[in-house]
C-alpha cells in the first residue's frame, strides 16, 4: 500500500478526522468565548476543577469496566513498566538536552519537558480517538507520571525534600483513587464475589453489569471530559500574550523538544522493545503513549515553577507556546500513528 493510499484511508476515517476537527474547533470556540468574555477567568478555573475532580475520575474508572484477558493484562503490565522507565530516561536525557543552560533555567526546562499535560490534554484526545481501551491504557501509564510529578517534580522545583502534604495530594488525588480502584476491579474481577446477570457471572463491582443505574451517570460525566477540557484550553490560550511567547527562543526550543522530540523517542524505543520481544506492546498502547507524551506543559509543573519563583516568565511562555504547537502537531501525530498501524509492526 502506497503512502497516498494510507493517507487517503486516514482522511476518510470519520472517527479520526472527527476527533481532530472536534478538538481544534472546540479549542477555538473556548478561545472565542473567553475573548468575548462569555467565559470569565473564574469560570475557566471552575471548568478545570470539574474536569479534574469529577469528569476525568469518572472516565478513568469506567474505562476499567470491561472483561480482562491475558493480552490486555500483559499490555497493562508492560505499559506500567514503560511508564516508570520512560520518566527515568527523560530525567537523565534532559540533563544532556539542556546542558547549555544553568541553574534554575535548566531545572525548570527539565521538569517542564519531563511532565506534560497527560491528564488534562492527552486523555480527552485518546478517549475521542481510541475509546475505552485507550483510556484504560492511559490511566495505567499515568501511574508513573503521578509518582514522579509529585516527587521528583516537586523536589526539583522546591529545592526541598518531599513533604507530607505533597504525598497526601498524590495519594488522595481523585484521578489516582479512581484509577487504582478501577484497576483493582479489572485485575481481580475473577476472584471477587460473583453476581449472575443473564447467563453469565460478573464480579459484583462490575457496575456496568451489576449496577447500570450507577454506571450510566459515569458515562455522562466521562463524556463531558473532552469538550470541557478543550473549551478550558482555548480559554487559557486567550489569557496569555501570543506575541511574547512567540519571540522567546528558549520557549521555542523547549516546545519543539516537548512536542516533537519526546514522543519520537517513545516511538523509536517502543519499536525496538517490541520487535526484540523485550517489552512488546500493541498499537493502541503505542498510540496512547505517543499522544500522552506529545502534550504541552503540565499544569502542576507550571504551578510549581510559579509558586517557587523559578523562571515564571519562561514557564508561562513555554506553556503557551507548547500548547499552541501541540494543537497544531496533534493531527500530525495521529496521522503518523495510523501510518505505523498500516505497517503492522505493532499488534
Automatic annotation (TrEMBL):
GO terms for cellular component: membrane. The keyword Isomerase does not apply. It comes from the Bacteria. Keywords: Cell membrane, Membrane, Transmembrane, Transmembrane helix, Transport. Its main location: membrane. The chain crosses the membrane at residues 16-34, 46-65, 77-99, 111-130, 136-155, 175-192, 212-231, 252-273, 279-306, 318-340. InterPro entries: Mem_transp_PIN-like (IPR004776). It is found in: Membrane. It is a multi-pass membrane protein. GO terms for biological process: transmembrane transport. Pfam families: Mem_trans. PANTHER family: AUXIN EFFLUX CARRIER FAMILY PROTEIN (PTHR36838), SLR1864 PROTEIN (PTHR36838:SF1). This is Malate permease. It comes from Propionigenium maris DSM 9537.
Amino acid at each position: 500500500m502506497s503512502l497516498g493510499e494510507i493517507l487517503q484511508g486516514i482522511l476518510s476515517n470519520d472517527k479520526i478526522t472527527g476527533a481532530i476537527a472536534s478538538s481544534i474547533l472546540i479549542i477555538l470556540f473556548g478561545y472565542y468565548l473567553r475573548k468575548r468574555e462569555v467565559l470569565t477567568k473564574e469560570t475557566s478555573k471552575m471548568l478545570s476543577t470539574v474536569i479534574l475532580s469529577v469528569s476525568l475520575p469518572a472516565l478513568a474508572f469506567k474505562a476499567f469496566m470491561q472483561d480482562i484477558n491475558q493480552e490486555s493484562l500483559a499490555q497493562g503490565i508492560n505499559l506500567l513498566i514503560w511508564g516508570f522507565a520512560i520518566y527515568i530516561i527523560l530525567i537523565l536525557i534532559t540533563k544532556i538536552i539542556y546542558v547549555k543552560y544553568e541553574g534554575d533555567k535548566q531545572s525548570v526546562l527539565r521538569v517542564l519537558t519531563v511532565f506534560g499535560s497527560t491528564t488534562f490534554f492527552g486523555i480527552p484526545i485518546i478517549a475521542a480517538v481510541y475509546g475505552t481501551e485507550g483510556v484504560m491504557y492511559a490511566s495505567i501509564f499515568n501511574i508513573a507520571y503521578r509518582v514522579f510529578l509529585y516527587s521528583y517534580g516537586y523536589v526539583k522545583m522546591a529545592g526541598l525534600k518531599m513533604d507530607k502534604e505533597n504525598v497526601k495530594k498524590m495519594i488522595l488525588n481523585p484521578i489516582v483513587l479512581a484509577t487504582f480502584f478501577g484497576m483493582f476491579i479489572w485485575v481481580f474481577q475473577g476472584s471477587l464475589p460473583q453476581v449472575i446477570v443473564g447467563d453469565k457471572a460478573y464480579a459484583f463491582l462490575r457496575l456496568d453489569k451489576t449496577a447500570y443505574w450507577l454506571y450510566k451517570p459515569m458515562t455522562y460525566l466521562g463524556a463531558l471530559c473532552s469538550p470541557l477540557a478543550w473549551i478550558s484550553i482555548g480559554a487559557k490560550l486567550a489569557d496569555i500574550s501570543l506575541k511574547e511567547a512567540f519571540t522567546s527562543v528558549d520557549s521555542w526550543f523547549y516546545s519543539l523538544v516537548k512536542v516533537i522530540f519526546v514522543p519520537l523517542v517513545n516511538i523509536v524505543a517502543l519499536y525496538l522493545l517490541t520487535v526484540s520481544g523485550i517489552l512488546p506492546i500493541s498499537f493502541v498502547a503505542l498510540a496512547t503513549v505517543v499522544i500522552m507524551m506529545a502534550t504541552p506543559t503540565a499544569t502542576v509543573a507550571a504551578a510549581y515553577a510559579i509558586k517557587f519563583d523559578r523562571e515564571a516568565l519562561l514557564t508561562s511562555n513555554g506553556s503557551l507556546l507548547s500548547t499552541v504547537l501541540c494543537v497544531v502537531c496533534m493531527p500530525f501525530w495521529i496521522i503518523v500513528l495510523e501510518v505505523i498501524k498500516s505497517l503492522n509492526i505493532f499488534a
